[in-house]
């Protein structure tokens, strides 16, 4: 995919994945990669920013002698996801109208 994903949509993608369950960083990257071409070096700054905004929280769990940092959606993160989902619906409708040549959209 050659289209760059805007920051707010990438935020929404991460928040959407985390709305289903908690993930540690690598597993979250793999989950998002199933749908978008994204690298860990792109995702980790997004996670830090989302945590700084209060939309995510973290906790560590031991795994094979090491700690994995898990990310969890907060209540304000859920609210932000709902906002992004609403904005996405409007954006998607407008873009479909333009790209498909529909004048009524």
TrEMBL record:
Residue span, Transcription regulator PadR N-terminal domain: 14-82
Short name of one Pfam family: PadR
InterPro entries per record: Metal_resp_DNA-bind_regulator (IPR052509), Tscrpt_reg_PadR_N (IPR005149), WH-like_DNA-bd_sf (IPR036388), WH_DNA-bd_sf (IPR036390)
SUPFAM superfamilies named in the record: Winged helix' DNA-binding domain
Official protein name in the record: PadR family transcriptional regulator
Species assigned in the record: Levilactobacillus spicheri
